[in-house]
């Protein structure tokens, strides 16, 4: 099985404190197919996606073709947490698929994790020629921010004392809630729903 770098473990939660909710994980693997075996490589990857769907926490996957002949394929996978991605990495299904992929791949995969704003538009972040137009990314971001901000404005209106707090701490709490909600809840789902819109190109 191909070795996958694991992120460093965080510090344990303080006694009695609730454990933080697990964050979704986006990982990209870059790899070349052997000349003349590109179709076999693609078919094996898509078959592997079918096996991934049976695993807990699987949120979606994409196969991006090379920008030029002989270039890297990019496989983008999304899981609900590091633990769920690790469970897939340790599975016999993944091991079997990677044995098969070595027969049609020209090299070992190179892995990269995406986080924060970068992960909002995965797999749109790579390759460069496949970036969605900025206007589309801005529109999808607005679709996420508008209801999120509206919800929190309504929520804080239920607490009259909130507006009496100092400006900077109040703003820090408000914007922090929005960023957390957008990064781990809204945008991963919204970009999947809007995938066709983001990926569509202009005609003419």
TrEMBL record:
Coiled-coil stretches, from where to where? none
Q: Where is the composition biased (Low complexity)?
A: 1-18
The answer on whether this UniProt entry bears the keyword Cytoplasm reads no
- Read off the InterPro entries from this record: ABM_dom, ABM_predict, Dimeric_a/b-barrel
Q: Where are the transmembrane segments?
A: 137-155, 167-187
Which part of the chain is the ABM domain? 25-114
> What's one Pfam family here?
ABM
Keyword tags? Membrane, Monooxygenase, Oxidoreductase, Transmembrane, Transmembrane helix
Q: Name one GO molecular function term.
A: monooxygenase activity
Specify where the region named Disordered lies, as residue ranges: 1-25
Keyword set includes Transmembrane helix: yes
The record's listing under PANTHER family reads: SLR1162 PROTEIN (PTHR40057)
Protein name, per record = Antibiotic biosynthesis monooxygenase
